[in-house]
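Quick review question:
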């Protein structure tokens, strides 16, 4: 994606659901997933490998 490690977290107030997008190839942000391991509802982690570009459209895998 780029020459940086990126980690973006979003928590929805209404449901408490956490979504993380991580392009961390170095492992720098790995501590976040272990810290959120006991969080409920279980956070959804999406990596740059989960994102694919297909015919100019970005799709995520569930």
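Suggested answer, residue by residue:
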């Amino acid at each position: 994606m780029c020459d940086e490690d990126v980690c973006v977290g979003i928590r929805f107030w209404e449901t408490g659901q956490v979504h993380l997008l991580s392009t961390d190839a170095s492992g720098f942000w790995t501590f976040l997933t272990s810290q959120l391991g006991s969080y409920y509802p279980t956070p959804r982690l999406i990596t740059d490998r989960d994102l694919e570009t297909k015919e100019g459209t970005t799709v995520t895998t569930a």
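Why it works: The longest helix spans residues 30-35. Strands lie at 7-11, 18-22, 44-47, 51-54, 57-60.
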